[in-house]
Design a protein that fits this description.
By secondary structure, the chain is of the alpha+beta class. The chain has 6 helices and 15 strands. The strands form 3 sheets. Strands 7, 8, 9, 10, 11, 12, 13, 14 and 15 form a 9-stranded mixed beta sheet that branches. It binds uracil.
């Protein structure tokens, strides 16, 4: 389908429409090897080859980013007083409609998926689709098999809210055990409230995996990177046993 060149360039989020028009005016844009200075020029992104400032320009409909969220950052698009996860996206990856697909509490760290693909976000967050979110929870007190089973079986929270069953695995025992927990819902403060209902507390919480995609161990806290198409597909894959 034919599209206006300036509109297409700005649709990728790096440049505003005005900046895209200036780039064209400056002679920084080539279509099939020929410099184009007409901002209203139309191209077919599936057929024409565009070079922008000497680099190949590819059109991606949506962007998918993995952020390793540090503590003290809000999972929101904007906030009057606090730093948000979107503030951590570097300029070269910024696009206008980015939002976090699912929220982590201010004190929770780890994997936040940031995208501008609303349908994808809806699919991975809907409990109906059984996409597991995996967390590591450091507990305030030692735990028992009975307590772990109570959370695993689908616990009722203090306010009467019923949780779906969860998968639990004890990673480290002791006074402050480390528990891996997988859930496919995203109720407010869910994991902290699940353990509270079972008589324990959560002192540290980190999301390590979404679907079958692990948080990149080489991605430092506060940093963000683009996901490959294969990685995006892994998020939508259910793990071996679904809920
Ligand atoms: N459960 C919580 O309690 N907090 C989070 O940030 C995510 C899940």
């Amino acid at each position: 389908m034919l599209q206006r060149l300036d509109k297409l360039i700005s649709s990728q989020g790096t440049y505003t429409r005005k900046q895209a028009q200036q780039l064209i005016k400056d002679g920084s844009v080539k279509v099939d090897g020929v410099t184009v200075r007409d901002r209203g020029f139309h191209i077919d992104p599936d057929k024409n080859e565009v070079m922008l400032e000497g680099k190949a320009f590819t059109v991606e409909k949506f962007v998918y980013l993995m952020l390793n969220k540090p503590k003290g950052v809000v999972s929101a698009t904007n906030d009057a007083s606090q730093k948000t996860v979107i503030d951590l996206v570097p300029d070269e990856l910024k696009r206008r409609n980015l939002f976090p697909a699912g929220r982590l509490d201010m004190t929770t760290t780890g994997f936040v998926l940031i995208t501008d693909d609303g349908d994808f976000a809806h699919r991975i967050l809907s409990p109906k689709n059984h996409i597991e979110k995996t967390y590591e929870a450091r507990l305030a007190e030692s735990t028992t098999p009975e307590q772990m089973n109570a959370v695993a079986e689908g616990i009722v929270l203090g306010d009467g809210t019923e949780c779906l069953p969860a998968k639990l695995r004890l990673l480290e025992d002791g006074d402050n055990p480390l528990v891996e927990i997988k859930i496919c819902e995203g109720k407010y403060h869910q994991i902290k409230r699940m353990f509270a209902a079972a008589g324990n507390g959560v002192i540290e919480l980190r999301r390590t995996r979404m679907g079958n995609l692990y948080l990149d161990e080489n991605l430092p806290e506060g940093h963000c990177r683009r996901l490959t198409q294969d990685e995006v597909l892994l998020i939508e894959q259910c793990s071996d046993e679904c809920f």
